[in-house]
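Section 3.1: Structural characterization of target chains.
Under the original work plan, the team committed to producing a structural model for every single-chain target entering the pipeline before any wet-lab resources were allocated. The record below documents one such target. The sequence was received from the expression subgroup and is listed exactly as submitted; it comprises 95 residues.
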Amino acid sequence: MKLEIKLTDERYRQGSIDEPGEMTTTWEADMDDCSIHAWFKVFESVLGAAGMTEKLIMRGACQLAFNECRPIEDMVKLSKDYDLDFAAERQQREG
């Protein structure tokens, strides 16, 4: 599989030798038998190349995993798998 992504920085639309307006990065790897973790590492690299911080990437991953479109039971189980304090479960305990 070949993944090619072109990132364009709108601030430098004209581009220059010192600050080109766009960057093309190519990632090549045999992703046919990769785990979900390997896929996330690829996209973490893409997001990092786009200028996103590690904290922002982590926040986005959490928003994908924990949102109103997911079954509460699955989110509670996942939170226990990672020793996270799931707010809905905490509210039930506290009454």
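The chain has a mean pLDDT of 78.
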